[in-house]
Amino acid sequence: MDAMMMDAMSKDMMSMPGMASMDMATMQECMDACAAAEQATTICATQMMDCAPTCMNCADMCHTTMRSMLRMQGMTADSMMAMLDACIAMCQACMDACAPHTDSDVCRMCMQACQACMDACMAMKDKMTAAA
Amino acid sequence: MDAMMMDAMSKDMMSMPGMASMDMATMQECMDACAAAEQATTICATQMMDCAPTCMNCADMCHTTMRSMLRMQGMTADSMMAMLDACIAMCQACMDACAPHTDSDVCRMCMQACQACMDACMAMKDKMTAAA
Amino acid sequence: MDAMMMDAMSKDMMSMPGMASMDMATMQECMDACAAAEQATTICATQMMDCAPTCMNCADMCHTTMRSMLRMQGMTADSMMAMLDACIAMCQACMDACAPHTDSDVCRMCMQACQACMDACMAMKDKMTAAA
Amino acid sequence: MDAMMMDAMSKDMMSMPGMASMDMATMQECMDACAAAEQATTICATQMMDCAPTCMNCADMCHTTMRSMLRMQGMTADSMMAMLDACIAMCQACMDACAPHTDSDVCRMCMQACQACMDACMAMKDKMTAAA
Prior knowledge:
homotetramer; Substrate Binding Domain Of Dnak, Chain:A, Domain 2; 0% strand; elongated
């Protein structure tokens, strides 16, 4: 996500109750991690292994979480926290489903992307709690 | 959602740990309510009112929740609960955002669909808790 | 899709250049067929057969086509025609990918839903051509 | 999209009829351009201007096109061409809808991202035609 996009979003955040102090770098990292996890899980789901349905569910949840951050004007602290929790839970489920397939390069890539996405969602939660 | 689809899904559920006792009628109602809420919120988001970003976030979350039920093989009890909670939180945020616009037919329709979706998600949670 | 939603959409269509004469019943049938095809293809993609990637691509395209009709204010005749063509092409690809699996109830259901969606998209194209 | 993902996808393409000669760099650029356009159009759609419904339709189409390239196993040359045409048509519609708003930084960003996405989709079509 480039600097021009983040500037446009940052301006909107300033006018939102309780969001002016949101750490934009943390949010940018979280959106990028969600986008990367959606791509990795989508590729993993094409490998016809038993993790595929979990990977696709994870892809959809990561995508929805990323979009909700692109549209922060439409979020509240409560709904953002709930969405981050759901994204974290799906990333965990996806890592658990891929764990038996560590001999697959694609499953290992998928697990790494899900771990990174989960970490980034947790960082968002920490920053939001600190800002509240 | 027609009977043939539900039959196909029901067969898969039978082989899932802890899901054999899932109430398929409750899940079908929840998927239908999610699909209806996605459509109502998407229409509402075209009305250029300040609820639009919330409505679009709600549309994406309802859609992701519906898909996760279509792919129950890829869900765990924990991730399903977290996704239902996120869907409930977004429906609540959407109803709150539309509440100032009760003079708009479209916002009233959107609020009704979100309330129905929230109720159906809560019914799912109740059945899952009872089955656990 | 219920009558209240269609009324709300119909009012918007009236104010769009070249869309006042759009047949709302045909569009409603097309949206319903797209939604049904998305659900059938998503279920089919969980069956771990070689049609799964095609089914998921078809699910996403049917969903995007349905949403574009929910947001007709954001479509032009050209972009709608191109999207209907892409949806028809993906439904055809999905039917071709499922065709070797006629012993599977789920693949047969998926093929029927894709055929119905393709027919409904073609009916939309016919009405749009007649209205132009 | 990182190198590990592209490697995983490249291996799959090798085994697909008529795709072994697909230019992976062109496809990678197209996926990145689609992802960037989805993000820019989603942000633009939050600005409550009359381009919003077109921007959201464009966001969904760019996303679906990106996913279809992540799942090339599920595409045929015909369905890929039709999806690229639909993506090009939606990007054009989006640029046209944003064109009256050149005083808005966000609309200018959105138009640039849509132009880049359209160019990348056309490059994909050229490479596919050359490889056929």
